[in-house]
Amino acid sequence: MAKKEYAYYPGCSSQKGSSGSNFMTSIGVMIEKLGIQLNEIPDWNCCGASIGYGEGGELPRLAINARNLALAEKHLPGKDMVSGCPACWLSSRETAERLHEFPHLMAETNEALKEAGLTLKGSVKARHMVEVLIEDIGFDAMKAPVVKPLNGLKIAGYVGCQTNRPFGIAGESFENPKYLDRMIEIVGAEAVKYDQKVTCCGGALAFSEPEKAQNQIRQIVESAYDHGAELIVTPCQLCQANVEIYQSEINKKHGTKLKMPVVYYSQLMTIAYGGSAKEAGLNGQLIRAEKLEGIAG
Hints:
alpha/beta; Rossmann fold; four-stranded parallel sheet
């Protein structure tokens, strides 16, 4: 059977040595088992999610995302542009939709792209990896390759705020999305009821107002404990980093003993599909997911 091919935009956080590099590691087995081929966009650039809404104005923010879309059109024509990072996806999706809606912005953006020898026609669709898994592959096909079901593992599905935007997964509730719970269940684990699944991790406040961000993280982790979870799973690189990294800081400040592993859905799927702990990138965790490592063997 021919593989489903996509133009792949990794984003900065998934590069080797970056905070989300274990996500990039973990998708290898997953996409192979699901018949997905990701073709990396040549010479892609940062989407500007962390600085794009600063003082630079709208056009520069649109132009740097439009460059990636234009590169996908040029080198991988006819293929959707897929990102594993919600921030990259939001930036790319917003750009594609605004340029489609406002011709004057498209004209100005193409004037800027002309300096790089590029032109954007607007034919590329920006999508998140989870959209592709659910809408193109489907839950039944995602379940089929499971050879090591994660039986007995209780997991809190933490969606976060970015992949839950109004133009996210088709047909999902914004207040209580179910797709991540279903992804947990198809690999054999138990998705615990969890009242913090769409709470923001405070990513934008981590440096400017750390107390506020860490208070949100504490609520997310403590709710997981309260509902019997043994680990948290998320589709978001920023959520994964924030919720894992700051547990130790919260413990120092408040005398708590938080030590909840935080992993990606792709790591669950890789282990369930027979991949090793190394192939799942579990050696990149700060808080080891020991039960998941045990299932991996």
